[in-house]
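Recap from last week: sequence in, structure out.
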Amino acid sequence: QAGVRGALARRQSKAMLLERQLQEEEEQRQRHAAVRVQAGVRGALARRQSRAMLLKKQLQEEERRASEAAIKLQANVRGTLARRRSRVLLLERQLREAEEQKQRHAAVRMQAGVRGALARRQSKAMLLERQLQEEEEQRQRHAAVRVQAGVRGA
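Predicted structure tokens:
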């Protein structure tokens, strides 16, 4: 009986050892499986984070390009407006100068007209004075002739 009990005990001990080994192997497989799952999850998270960083970088680059484009567009618009204002100011100055030139020409024509009228008036006055002087001289000659005729005839 002791031999049978020893054999049973050895068999039971061996079965328990085998069961413990199987359990340890199962736990080892589960740990390996958990490690693989964790590695897969970490890899997926890393890829997701990498994609997110790449998308963020692309978004920042697009924003930078859009900002640069907006700055260039604003500069172009400011330049266009400045050139337009410059052309308007130039046209206004040219119009003002043309109007001033027109007024100067009108003033010169008016001055010439006034000078001409004054010269004609002065010329007419001189002519009238000369005619009056000639008439006076004619009257004096006539008077002298009558005086002389009266002196001779009397």
